[in-house]
């Protein structure tokens, strides 16, 4: 199944999905530094990284919804809905962490907020795995090949046998 939402022939959702995941991983690293007693500003950097990740997740979810409408019924559709739900759980957990931390002066996470953040990150990792299986197993979002496979040896006029 080929996606409708493309830029220069490349699907948009996989490109957008990497941004919130990367931001959430970075936020967990900054927050880990704040939890173990690192520099005072690490908690603030982690908080604002979560905020940026939430905005990026909204953009990625919009692109994902466009793709979800075109997925044919069956196992691929069920896997796509599971992917959507897992990623929504991740975003909801990060939004909860963000709301808990907005009231603190330093924006540093407590132990409970950090554990919730790690749970959200685990959900995001599972969501990424589900997304990868959508491409590999169900060929969702993959452009159908129209040209024959390029063989570098044939193009050079060389034989592959010794």
Structure overview:
The chain is mainly alpha-helical. The protein has one domain. Helices cover 69% and strands 2% of the residues. The chain has a two-stranded antiparallel ribbon. The chain is elongated and about 60 Å long. It starts with 5 loop residues before the first strand and ends in a 6-residue tail after the last helix. 29% of the residues are buried. The mean pLDDT is 87. This is DUF2231 domain-containing protein.
Write the layout of secondary structure elements.
Elements (H helix, E strand, L loop, with lengths): L5 E2 L2 E2 H24 L5 H30 L4 H27 L9 H26 L15 H5 L6
Antiparallel strand pairs: 1-2
Quick structural summary:
The protein is mainly alpha-helical and 162 residues long.
User: Could you spell the SSE succession in H and E letters?
Assistant: EEHHHHH
- The total domain count is 1
Q: What spatial order of strands do you see in the largest sheet? A: 1-2
**If helices are DSSP runs of H or I spanning 4 or more residues, what is the number of helices?**
5
Distance between the termini: 40 Å
Average pLDDT score:
87
Give a short account of the largest sheet. Answer: 2 strands, antiparallel
Strand content: under 5%
- Total strands: the figure is 2
Helix content estimate: 55-70%
Low-confidence blocks of residues: none
Radius of gyration over C-alpha positions, nearest whole angstrom: 20 Å
Helix/sheet category: mainly alpha
> Given the C-alpha coordinates, what overall shape results?
elongated
């Amino acid at each position: 199944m080929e996606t409708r939402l493309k830029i220069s022939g490349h699907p948009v959702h996989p490109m957008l999905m990497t941004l919130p995941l990367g931001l959430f991983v970075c936020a967990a690293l900054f927050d880990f530094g704040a939890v173990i007693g690192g520099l005072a500003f690490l908690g603030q950097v982690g908080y604002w990284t979560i905020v940026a990740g939430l905005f990026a997740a909204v953009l990625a979810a919009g692109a994902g919804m466009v793709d979800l409408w075109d997925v044919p019924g069956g196992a691929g559709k069920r896997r796509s809905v599971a992917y959507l739900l897992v990623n929504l759980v991740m975003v909801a957990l990060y939004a909860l962490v963000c709301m808990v931390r907005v009231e603190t002066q330093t924006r540093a996470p407590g132990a409970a907020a950090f554990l919730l953040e790690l749970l959200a990150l685990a959900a995001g990792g599972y969501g990424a795995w589900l997304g990868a299986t959508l491409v590999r197993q169900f060929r969702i979002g993959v452009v159908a090949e129209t040209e024959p496979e390029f063989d570098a040896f044939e193009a050079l006029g060389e034989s592959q046998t010794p």
